[in-house]
Inverse folding.
C-alpha cells in the first residue's frame, strides 16, 4: 500500500486527498476558519487515499466519512468485460422489450375479455405467447448469468430479480396447466394470468432499475479511466507531497 502525506507550510492552507470524506473535510475546514482548502484526487495521485496532518477539529467528520463502506458494484471489471463480449447480452436486449410489447397487447386483450366477456380465444393465445417468451428469456438469461457470473441463477447482483422471475414463471405455468387440464372456469384461469402479469410488472421495474445502476456505474468507470489517463501534476504552491511505500 502507498500512503499519501501532506507537509503544510502555512496555517491557512490545507491539502487533502479526495475520497468519500472530502466534502466533510472541506465543509469542516471552512467552518473552523481554514478558508484555503485544496481537494486532490486519489486517482490522480495513483495511491490509496490516506489522510494525514489533519486538524484535530476535523478528525470526527473524516472518520465518519471513511467509515461508510461503498456499495458493491453490480459487475467486477472481468464480469463487465464478459457481459460486453457475450452475444447473450444482445439476445436479452432483444427479448426483454419484445416480451414487454407482447405483455401490453395481451393485457389489453385480457382486459377486454374481463370487461365484455368477448375475445376469450385472442386473450388465451396472447397469454400463451407471453408464457413462451417468458420461458425463452428465462433460459437464455440463465445462460447469460452463467457466462457473466459463472452461476446459472440467483447470483448476488440479481438475486431478487431472479426470485420474482421464478414467481412469474410459476404463475404463468399454473395458468397453462389449468388451461389444458380444464381446472376452474375460463374467467378464473384468466385471473391467474392477471396475477402473473402483476408480478411481471414488479419484475420489469426491478430489471429497469438495475439497468440504470449498471449504466451509471459504467459511466463512472469511464470517467475514472479518463481521469487516470489525464491526471495532472500534484505539485502545488505551498504544499509538498511525498510517497512512502509499506
Amino acid at each position: 500500500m502507498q500512503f499519501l502525506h501532506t507537509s503544510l507550510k502555512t496555517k491557512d492552507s490545507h491539502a487533502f486527498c479526495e475520497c468519500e470524506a472530502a466534502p466533510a473535510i472541506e465543509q469542516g475546514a471552512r467552518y473552523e476558519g481554514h478558508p484555503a482548502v485544496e481537494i486532490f484526487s486519489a486517482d490522480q495521485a495513483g495511491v490509496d487515499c490516506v489522510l494525514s496532518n489533519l486538524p484535530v477539529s476535523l478528525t470526527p467528520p473524516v472518520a465518519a466519512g471513511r467509515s461508510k463502506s461503498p456499495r458493491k458494484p453490480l459487475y467486477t471489471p472481468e464480469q463487465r468485460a464478459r457481459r460486453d463480449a457475450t452475444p447473450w447480452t444482445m439476445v436479452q436486449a432483444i427479448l426483454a422489450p419484445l416480451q414487454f410489447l407482447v405483455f401490453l397487447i395481451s393485457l389489453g386483450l385480457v382486459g377486454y375479455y374481463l370487461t365484455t366477456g368477448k375475445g376469450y380465444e385472442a386473450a388465451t393465445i396472447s397469454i400463451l405467447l407471453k408464457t413462451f417468451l417468458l420461458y425463452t428469456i428465462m433460459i437464455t438469461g440463465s445462460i447469460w448469468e452463467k457466462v457473466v457470473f459463472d452461476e446459472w441463477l440467483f447470483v448476488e447482483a440479481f438475486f431478487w430479480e431472479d426470485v420474482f422471475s421464478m414467481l412469474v414463471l410459476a404463475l404463468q405455468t399454473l395458468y397453462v396447466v389449468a388451461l389444458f387440464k380444464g381446472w376452474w372456469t375460463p374467467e378464473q384461469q384468466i385471473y391467474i394470468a392477471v396475477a402473473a402479469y402483476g408480478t411481471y410488472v414488479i419484475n420489469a421495474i426491478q430489471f429497469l432499475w438495475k439497468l440504470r445502476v449498471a449504466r451509471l456505474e459504467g459511466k463512472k468507470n469511464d470517467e475514472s479511466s479518463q481521469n487516470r489517463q489525464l491526471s495532472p501534476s500534484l505539485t502545488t504552491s505551498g504544499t509538498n507531497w511525498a510517497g512512502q511505500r509499506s
In short: The chain has two domains: 2-70, 77-225.
